[in-house]
Design brief:
The chain has a single domain, classed as Immunoglobulin-like (Sandwich), CATH 2.60.40. It is 14% helix and 40% strand. The protein is globular, with a radius of gyration of 19 Å. A hairpin with a 3-residue loop joins strand 1 and strand 2. The strands form three sheets. Strands 6-3-8-9 form a four-stranded antiparallel β-sheet, with no helix packed on it. The chain is mostly beta strands and 131 residues long.
């Protein structure tokens, strides 16, 4: 084996774990606030429960031991945090949330958290756009 083949083989072996890692689910918002809002999650585990969580501010919140997903970390402030809606993902790991966002929630933040059957994955944090 020549030096060039050895270097290429080493690069491929080192890159293998990086290319096989699972990606974080992605939350996408569309709409105006106040008004109708469409939120979509993509890349979550297929056929799993998923909750849309709201907080007026960003922060850091570890789910307590007495709730499902104990130890999962949300990048939302615990003050004012609440589950907006829970749905199930489809066979592709996607789910849609539809609703009306009141003026008091404009500028707040959303993140998703999958149920234990979904591995307690969290999505990116998205700010609700202010009109």
């Amino acid at each position: 084996m020549n030096t060039r083949s050895l270097v290429l083989s080493t690069i491929l072996i080192v890159m293998l774990p990086v290319t096989t890692a699972s990606a974080q689910p992605v939350l996408i918002l569309d709409g105006v606030c106040p008004g109708p809002m469409h939120a979509e999650i993509q890349g979550a585990r297929p056929n799993a429960g998923i909750a849309l969580v709201y907080s007026p501010r960003r922060g850091w919140f570890r789910i307590p031991w007495y709730y499902w997903c104990e130890g999962a970390i949300l990048r939302l402030n615990p003050r004012g945090i609440q589950v907006v809606e829970s749905v199930g993902t489809d066979e592709n790991g996607s789910a849609t949330f539809e609703g009306y966002v009141s003026a008091g929630a404009c500028g707040g933040y959303l993140q998703t958290l999958s149920y234990p059957s979904g591995g307690c994955e969290t999505s990116n944090v998205v700010q609700i756009p202010e009109n």
